[in-house]
Amino acid sequence: MLSKLLKYEYRATARFLLPLYLGVLFVIMVNALFLRMGDFFPAFALGDSYSLILALLLIACVLGFLAVVIAGFVTGIQRFYGLLGTRGYLMFSLPVTANQLIASKLICATSWMIGAFLLGCVFLRMMAFPFGEENLVVIAPNSGVALFCHCLALLAMLCCSILFFYFCIALGGQWPQNRLIATILCYFVITFVLQIVLFFAMIALALIALNTPAGVTVSSFFSSLSPYQAISVVACCMTLFFAAACAILWVLTRYYLTKKLNLA
């Protein structure tokens, strides 16, 4: 059933996001080709019109990239927000579980955000078209594991941020008549509390690292590692931290969708 939910989600979101992504990709290609026109027509490249058009195209590419990032994220949040509205009467009547509903929304939103990231990579590479040896990205020896761990940490961070919004929406759904205001208040209140907790937690960890044998052991452990190994260890710790946060947010969101469901 999860595959059918994903198919429904992708169809619903692609109606708006796919033309936007393709449009931004087209602008990026036009910008890259126009940028290289100066190499073939030096006289035209010296004119003010060429510089003006190139600047406008570059601004259009940057604004387009920001648009796909914001649109992808907002669409993913809006799809879950609509789940607790009138659409929820249909979705919760289907033979699906709350886990499947959360998973379908999360996978769809995450994949669109990854697509926006890849579009940004295309933009950076097209700016260097045609490719030469000086434009190639060379992965240093022994850095592949560090890069992989870093990507995992970023993916876990992205999923955690999306699930945090889902939890705030589910919690704000306890007040269906003022659900939007309640969701916004929940987001800011929980964020403020988490910032205070993390601030004091960082201070406590710093004191432990400076004044305890365990902290000295950890410091000596990191000093014995190479830079890429240290990055890998830190990225793995971040991945575990955000994975644990994702699990907590998932359980809390599922609880409110099953035990405390209050549709508008």
TrEMBL record:
Keyword Secreted: no
Superkingdom field: Bacteria
Keywords, comma-separated and alphabetical: Membrane, Transmembrane, Transmembrane helix
Transmembrane helix as UniProt keyword: yes
Transmembrane segments: 12-34, 54-81, 102-125, 145-172, 184-210, 230-252
Protein name stated in the entry: ABC transporter permease
